[in-house]
Design goal:
The protein is mainly α and 503 residues long. The chain is 73% helix and 1% strand.
Length: 503
Amino acid sequence: MDFIFMQLAGFGGAMVDLVVDPLTYVYLISSVFLGIAFGALPGLTATLAVTILTGFFSNKIPLDYSLIALLGAYVGAIYGGSYPSILLNIPGTAASAATAMDGYPLAKAGRGGEALGLTTTASFIGTVIGTFALLIFVWVLLLVSKNIASPEKALLALFGILLSGTLMSEDLVIKGWIAGLVGLAMAMVGLDPLLSEPRYTFGWSYLMSGFQVVPVLMGAFAVPQIIEGLRHVQAGQLTEFSDRIIPRMSAIKKYLPTIGRSGLIGTGVGALPGVGEDVAGWVSYGVGKTVSKNGKKFGKGSLEGLLSSETANNACIGGALIPLLVLGIPGSPPAAALMGAFKINNVIPGPTIDPEIILRVVAILVLASLTMFIMGLFTARIFIKILRIPQTVFLPIVMVLTTIGSFSVGGGINDLYLMLGVGFVAYFMNLLKYPIAPLVIGVILGGLFDETFRRSLLISDGDMSVFISRPGAAILVTLNVALILSQLPATKRTFKWMKGRLV
């Protein structure tokens, strides 16, 4: 109990520091507004919002303000996807796909304002649930992870790459692993972290520092999204509404059990590395339909179904930051972009992270969720007008912002070549159904794997048993091997046969 009070006291101190700073509100309001706009415009994503702001703010302003901008955009974008889902039946982001199932039927029935109001409230509560889970559980995991040394760090990085490839593959798991290993190979380019010898630079001085994180993020996440958006322009009939947006307390009270359950589900799913907010929304929606007395109404305009999805995808934000901050493994694609921002600011997520940064992240998430709640209730009609902007207008603008963001990192034309090169490779990977997030996670975690794996071998004089002689390392080796074996066709056939025998 004393431990919890200590964390709450630290959180309170971080909150006071932010609240008394006038610049906090400038960055907070502008970033949340931008995030909601990105979420509301079909074709843009939370990952794209965080990625673009990473290029503009990281390493150029104090860390606190950079975190406010990035986390504000993250929170705003996940929520903003509910607008087109409800009013256009077009998910603004993948995270809001399940929201459209009941949101649009409600809007067609003239209850669009009610749906938006309850969605806004549920998003706020869900974000707060995930944030306080982050505040409590991240410290427990940090205490456990204090014994992690180089062998464990190397195996954790490898596990994060393999797990993200496994969970994010659309068809063949091997495609996700290939994408992750390509990213791992890209991380090997540049100066050797142990011997300071150039590797795979081919005499090109630009590659001496390796592939820059921001151009890779921009190319991997932004360029394919823009090309795909211009190729397939989405259009829909905007559903008008005249009912009130501010929800009634009686309605909130009625659905509090649904909101609480969905918040816990979203947080739990978010804590699984590499899963993301879209999975959280669908899992919560499925659970809600199963346990609800009115499950048959799901998909036909059920407020319960709407809140199940929208609460969970926002609660997933806090959950996704738990593995990021404790293990250095992103819990979702936007968290992967956020990890890139941490790296640029010379902050290494993991067991050695400064506890003050965690407290700041929690305080910023609470302020960002409150800002999102106020904006959602009182400026909703402004964001609805944004939905009328054609994709052919805003996507080229996003491309310009992406280019500026990439160029501003190093100030060289080579960063733009890298962004475009990675972008076109990522676009064709998308066409072939190779997931992009594992590639980015491989680039980000590859340096950690490379350095800690080789350091472990140097310390042990090349003895590979160092990876099984330590209890933590042995457990991680087992997890890596089990993950790979579980995806082999022979293993799947064996499990299917055993299941049939037991039945």
